[in-house]
């Protein structure tokens, strides 16, 4: 698995990848913390003021073929 963090690419196993995702999840209480496509995952820190804003962004990522990791309820 390749993970992009702050414009740096790191290669790691699945167990380390899950640990990194858990840490990212804790740092973003309401918003998108990662997007994944294929064997690449990019960590994000996108925070939103409303569910509507977050849902729009989630749908945009999904249209591009990404799996979206987020905290907060989504209707997407």
Short note summarizing the structure:
This protein is an alpha+beta fold.
Which key phrases capture this entry?
76 residues; single chain; alpha+beta; five-stranded mixed β-sheet; 5 strands
Structure description:
With 76 residues, the chain is α+β, with helices and mostly antiparallel strands. The chain has one domain (2-71). Helices cover 36% and strands 37% of the residues. Strands 2-1-4-3-5 form a five-stranded mixed sheet, sandwiched between helices. A hairpin with a 2-residue loop joins strand 1 and strand 2 (8-11). The chain is globular. 17% of the residues are buried. The mean pLDDT is 93.
Would you count the extended β strands for me? 5
- Beta-strand share of residues: 35-45%
Strand order of the largest sheet: 2-1-4-3-5
In helices, the fraction of residues equals 25-40%
Tally of separate helices: 2
Mean pLDDT: 93
- Major beta sheet summary: 5 strands, mixed
Q: How many domains, in number, for the residues? A: 1
Specify the structural class: alpha+beta
Distance between the termini: 26 Å
Question: What is the fold's blueprint, element by element?
Answer:
Blueprint: E1 2-5, E2 8-11, H1 14-27, E3 31-37, E4 40-47, H2 51-63, E5 67-71
Parallel strand pairs: 1-4
Antiparallel strand pairs: 1-2, 3-4, 3-5
């Amino acid at each position: 698995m390749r993970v992009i963090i702050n414009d740096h690419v790191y290669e790691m196993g699945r167990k380390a990848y899950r640990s990194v995702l858990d840490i990212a999840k804790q740092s973003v209480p309401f918003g998108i913390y990662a997007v994944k496509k294929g064997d690449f995952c990019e960590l994000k820190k996108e925070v939103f003021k409303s569910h509507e804003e977050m849902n729009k962004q989630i749908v945009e990522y999904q249209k591009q073929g990404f799996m979206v990791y987020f905290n907060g309820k989504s209707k997407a």
